[in-house]
Amino acid sequence: MFTGIIEELGEVTAVERAGDSARLRLRGPLVTEGAAHGDSIAVNGVCLTVVDSGDGEFTADVMAETLDRTGLGALEPGSRVNLERPMALGGRLGGHLVQGHVDGTGTVLERIPGDRWEIVAVSLPAHLARYVVEKGSITVDGVSLTVVEAADDRFTVSLIPTTLALTTLGLKRPGDPVNLEVDVLAKYVERLLAHGTAPRGTGADAGAELP
User: Fold this and answer.
1) Alpha helices in 12-103 (DSSP H)
2) Is the pTM of this model over 0.90?
């Protein structure tokens, strides 16, 4: 589980493609400190498993499902990436609960600069629109953000100077793809409502039937 608070702006150093999969090598001295085989690191919001690490770099395999659902397939040597290690048990939840399971991709539509901040509009896939609400949380390329406005086909977020300087969102231009993960709590609520009340004999229904 992640929080959407980016620890490091890393860089892709190599991409090895093999059929419908790829192996990425990424530089991130901070997130690789103490990293071992099998550990998780989020790359642009995608939870990847460390294959090996050393000298401030790590490699991770990316399967076809991930390449199809995310923007990782467009990465190439020199691409900058947002990196985050999983939240430690008992640590501070600075953003919101982020699984690292990308739900889809959007496209940067426009950037509206302010004095020291920017409003960024991003396209929203139709199947994700119902999970995105004004002042709710959304993860964009691994960054936990608050939705400013939400429509059926787009949403906007406001980026503060820190986000602009320390994440890839400061580099994205109109037309660039971004990975999106909606708030997992919204999906659980939808699932529970779709299946109605709790089974008999449990929860609110316990004791409702008499012999």
Assistant:
1) 64-69
2) no
